Fold these 3 entries.
Entry 1:
Amino acid sequence: MLQLHRINVYYGESHILRDVSFTIEAGQVACLMGRNGVGKTTTLKAIMGLLPVRSGAIVMDGADITTGATDRRARKGLVYVPQGREIIPHLTVRENLQLGFWAQGTKSDRTAEKAAFDEVYQLFPKLTQILERPGGVLSGGEQQQLAIGRAILSAPKVLLLDEPTEGIQPSVVDQIEDVIIGFKKTRRFAILLVEQGLHFAARLADAYVIMAKGAVVAAGRTNELSADEVKRHLVV
């Protein structure tokens, strides 16, 4: 379980997140929604420890991680795929994936390692064709597949995805949807994703959190998301 309790984040003296509170249950898929600039990416960065929290608390599996270093959060099972994907450009696809596996920070035998990589290759078969290519020459869709595959190899308990379908071709969007739906069925880990597409969110998410002006203004089950809330908070 991941819980945010009244967190406040500032850029300098600019108050960006204002008493943001919500809970992601174990195995749940939740969608963080809102217009551009309302604080969605800032929320993910605060969860990951990339931005300091001025006040409030972030709790994961009952432990307060509010002041924990980013690498310690990663070892606890928090994994972040940002909008920019952060593929290491001079490393090959294989090497980028290997970094994800090593990020688990636990010893593993070759059988377990092979099984983990085989799962990623089944989810994203394209990666098997480009294993020796540098990450920097990949298309946007290929980089997104690599970024999500690398994240899965990190053995997440909570996977943070920032607009995973932005700027990529429809066939890859469909593939990413199918991958998330597959994990939703197994409930192996929780997923918190930022997504602007209402159809994408409705199809994938169990729950939604809507933000406006740095604050949470609505939350609930996705199948209960009303047309009025969509009009007020999501339609430009």
Entry 2:
Amino acid sequence: MNIRLINIKHDMQHLEKIRALYNSAFPENERAPFEKLLRKAGKKNINFFSCFCGDSWAGLLYVVNCFDMSYIFYFAVDESMRGKGIGTAVLKAAQKKYAGRRFFLAVEEVDRKYENYSQRLSRLHFYERAGFKRSGQKMQEGNVIYELMGVGGKVDNKGYRRLIKSFMGPVILFFTMKIIED
């Protein structure tokens, strides 16, 4: 599969598709303002990719980098491209791009107590097929708990807070964000 990750700094041709996918793939309470993501994408430590499979646009990948860490903030595959192995291929291509780094993401906590348990479990299995491993760590943002998955090693609270602060700036002081060791 010919996967290409094109930084939108260099090609904004599919910006409206990216915006529409972003708005449809993520719940409103988990979305940062799209214009803010675009502004931040101009920073050196942010990679906002338009993902392609061959010549076909396939999705978006938003990664924040700090020191030896790379955190997937947002990843989504266009609905018309799902179920074809493209999402897994994009994530594997990203792992190659970020080789040698702690490359991680957060998924909603997988626990039977949630109404959408089967959806959460399915998402967890998808990331495992793409090579991500459960770190045994959970992260809390406000009152939402996520599980961390990644490759290349665990992330501690100090490193995570630095990464988030590098993205958000001083506003981080207003959020409860911490990694909870299992």
Entry 3:
Amino acid sequence: MRNVLMVVSGPSGVGKGTLVKRLCAEREDVVESVSCTTREPRKGEIHGREYYFISMSEFQRRIKEGDFLEYDEHFGNFYGTPISFVREQLKTRSVVLEIDVVGGKIAKEAFPECILIMIAPPSLEALKGRLISRNSETAEEIENRLSRLEYELSQASSYDYVIVNDDLETAYRDLNELIDAEKLKA
């Protein structure tokens, strides 16, 4: 079986993080890439686990050095995938990038064999409820994230697969089976 690079994208609160975390916890042959960000850690987040929390000056330096497979700015903060991590991990296992649609397009350009997977909400109302219930953002931040929803979902046609996360167990099963199929491709 081959190792594959996969991008999992979707609007904030759609459940992509939950799906990716479970996938990587249950499969030794899949690892999640840890991105760098200039934003402050949320409660409970640990440097090197959820993100590498770095300064804006370090992020800019690493851009100039070509250290990111992809990077972008969201809501005033920068996020980027260290290319060295991806290349090293692909030698022994598959890598999942949980990144936005802009990063997904850039990753596909850099690695044409990259598999793009969109996680979509069953409805706008369900997504808004999830964002509110996770209680990690202000009302203004939630509205900013919802305003980006239409754009993100409009990019689904450029993705290889779309999984609607209406039921977490079904979405997880679909994601797991999709990865197995991709790893078996000649």
